[in-house]
Write a structure and sequence with these properties.
By secondary structure, the chain is an all-alpha fold. Helices cover 69% and strands 0% of the residues.
Length: 195
């Protein structure tokens, strides 16, 4: 693997030269000679990232990063599950790759990672933020109602809030969780609510 191509890609991308950036990333991807090189580079690259949710260049994701994470997915490696959960936008843009991990969503991947490694602070924090984002979407039209599907019921939703409380070890989201819990109760107790 010749990492100079990657640095060339970053330079050309920053300069706005899309054609040169595409050429450089193609050369970088083609320079890998083994899976172990991909794994070593991917681990280093992901551990250096400051923003978990930002998409990465599709060639880099498809040909270098995803093969490493897919192998970890098959082996129930919590770190790989975590990164796949963080890179869900890349997966949404690459249906054939997403299919290889059973079309699991970001929260599902993070839940799986947390079940395997419940002591990981990184996984706990990311999962909590994903749950809060889901709650925010669910009640963003309040007081008109909650955006839920047919399979959601009061008990499962309250159970999810309780789980989020367990993850919220410092109580940062205590007020938000209490508010959402109250809205769930109100929603399911409304006279017009019929299942």
């Amino acid at each position: 693997m010749d990492e100079q191509y990657y640095y060339d890609y970053l330079k050309q991308d920053a300069a706005g030269d899309k054609k040169a950036a595409k050429k450089a990333i193609g050369q970088f991807v083609s320079s890998f000679r083994s899976f172990s090189e991909k794994k070593e580079w991917t681990n280093s690259f992901l551990n250096r990232r400051k923003t978990h949710n930002k998409k990465i260049r599709h060639e880099l994701f498809e040909f270098v990063v995803f093969p490493v994470l897919e192998k970890g997915f098959q082996e129930d490696d919590p770190k790989c599950l975590f990164w796949l959960g963080c890179m869900i936008q890349n997966l949404f843009s690459a249906r054939p790759l997403h299919e290889k991990i059973s079309f699991l969503g970001g929260t599902e991947l993070l839940l799986k990672a947390h079940a395997i490694d419940p002591e990981s602070e990184e996984i706990r924090c990311k999962l909590l933020h994903e749950l809060i984002a889901g709650f925010d979407y669910c009640d963003h039209e309040w007081p008109a109602g909650l955006l839920i599907d047919e399979t959601d019921d009061r008990e499962s939703m309250l159970s999810e809030v309780q789980f989020a409380r367990q993850l919220d070890t410092n109580g940062k989201f205590a007020t938000r969780l209490a508010e959402f819990e109250s809205r769930i109760e109100q929603y399911f107790s409304r006279e017009y609510f019929v299942r």
